[in-house]
Input
Amino acid sequence: MLALRRALAQRGVASLSQLGRAGRAAQERSYASAPMLSHFLQIGLSSTASNAWEKSCYFKIDFKIDEDASVYEAVQRFAAYNIGCLVVVSKEGKVAGIISERDYVTKVALLGRKSVDVKVSEICTSEANMVVANTSDSVQDCMGMMLARDIRHLPVVGEDGDVVGMLSVKDLIKELVKEKDEMISKLTDFTMGRGAYFEHV
Output
């Protein structure tokens, strides 16, 4: 027992009860850090494509263009709405593809073609090659799709498969920053003892 007391004294611990209290405190800190980490890893998972779309610049505009329209009309729409992409629809109103500023630059301007003489259907990405997000997909999933295909815009489809919205990479970044700021605020309150925001997971 004397040897144990000497060993505890060398570690700056006065008694076994103090050692027990220190152990419990360390355990509580580890319990607290686990949910903090898990919440950081969930940034981008709580918000959906639908949430981001409702705050997008595309939300209140007509982001569709007829496949028989000229590329010049598409460029006019890009400039008027300060956007970079439009969904292309057929005469029947069905989605036929997607056209972006990049399509205009690489397939019209750089080739010396006149935008008034080229139809949207000639240069757009066809519906078969489109990458789309469901309204229920997470923001993190949407960002993954964009990075995987090196694209900056993502049409959003509803349960019936019809396109209901459009997301830009800027929309997703705004949503991720919002979630990150909310998480930092909660962590600050947690460390300052202003509230118990985390549950054990």
In short: Residues 16-41 form the longest helix (26 residues). The longest strand covers residues 95-100.
